[in-house]
């Protein structure tokens, strides 16, 4: 579904992404792991149109999508979430979901004059959809809470919920599990699995928690120093000497190491 070919993204002389080539198969939940600073988020930013590449290509279903802006990728069904959740704090969780652009008629000026009934119908449908998403994520009780007042983990669920307001094909998740308690992490994992099985979403998941990766991802791609280093099942990559060295090279402070050892 996604093919990345010899992708580079440099910052001055620093090669954050340094010739990465990889595939994400349709229907998979592909894990992307690697030591801090490996270039994972930068790779996501380039694929999702937030940063132009220095060179290289990104294809989606065979179409060259290199450098397309996020809103065009959004309309093709390519969505991403952020390592740090973005929400409109004073709006309710339901309203946050209703804000996700989906071609509502209300956005066009003439519609506000000629299509009041249609806007009201669409708003009702949008509201019903938002409530369905909140229910799917088991956070219906937060519908009317201001999004700024919910927990960090619940914000991550809301981020995932934003991808469900449209017909996503592939979703890039950047550390949805970071700073989230165990129970909520498993709720997030279940939601990802259900979206994959029931709605056919393809996922690419950056995560440092190897239990989470093991529960969800096959294959797992390891990135180090801006390149793909290895790919396989979690057990295969854990047994790969180059992978162990890449993690060791960053020092034992890296908490992934405990899981890799
Ligand atoms: N805008 C930028 N300007 C300069 N350097 C940058 C910029 N963005 C990222 N980098 C550098 O590129 C490298 C890769 O960063 P990136 O955020 O992609 O890593 P990561 O694999 O997501 O790490 P982590 O697991 O810690 O989130 C880092 O050394 C970072 O300092
Ligand atoms: Mg990152």
From TrEMBL:
It comes from Pelagimonas varians. The keyword NAD does not apply. The lineage of its organism: Bacteria, Pseudomonadati, Pseudomonadota, Alphaproteobacteria, Rhodobacterales. One of its GO terms (cellular component) is plasma membrane. GO terms for molecular function: ATP binding; ATP hydrolysis activity. Pfam families: ABC_tran, BCA_ABC_TP_C. This is Lipopolysaccharide export system ATP-binding protein LptB. The gene is lptB_1. Keywords: ATP-binding, Hydrolase, Nucleotide-binding, Transport. The keyword Disulfide bond does not apply. Residues 2-250 form the ABC transporter domain. Its EC number is 3.6.3.-.
């Amino acid at each position: 579904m996604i093919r990345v070919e010899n992708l580079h993204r440099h910052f001055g002389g620093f090669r954050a992404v340094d010739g990465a080539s990889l595939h994400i198969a349709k229907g998979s939940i592909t894990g992307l792991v690697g030591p801090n600073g490996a270039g994972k988020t930068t790779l996501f930013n380039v694929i999702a149109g937030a940063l132009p590449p220095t060179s290289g290509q990104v294809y989606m279903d065979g179409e060259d999508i290199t450098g397309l802006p996020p809103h065009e990728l959004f309309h093709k069904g390519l969505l991403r979430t952020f390592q740090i959740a973005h929400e409109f704090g004073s709006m309710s969780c339901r309203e946050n979901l209703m804000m996700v652009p989906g071609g509502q008629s209300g956005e066009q000026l003439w519609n506000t004059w000629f299509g009041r009934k249609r806007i009201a119908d669409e708003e009702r449908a949008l509201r019903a959809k938002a409530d369905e998403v909140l229910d799917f994520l088991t956070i219906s009780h937060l519908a009317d809470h201001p999004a700024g007042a919910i927990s960090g983990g619940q914000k991550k669920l809301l981020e995932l919920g934003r991808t469900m307001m449209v017909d996503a094909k592939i979703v890039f998740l950047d550390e949805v599990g970071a700073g989230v308690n165990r129970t909520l992490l498993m709720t997030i994992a279940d939601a990802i699995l259900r979206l994959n099985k029931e709605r056919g979403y393809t996922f690419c998941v950056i995560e440092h928690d190897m239990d989470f990766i093991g529960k969800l991802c096959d294959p797992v791609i390891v990135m180090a120093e801006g390149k793909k280093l290895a790919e396989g099942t979690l057990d295969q990559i854990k047994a790969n000497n180059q992978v162990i060295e890449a993690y060791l090279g960053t020092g034992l402070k890296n908490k992934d190491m405990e899981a890799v050892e």
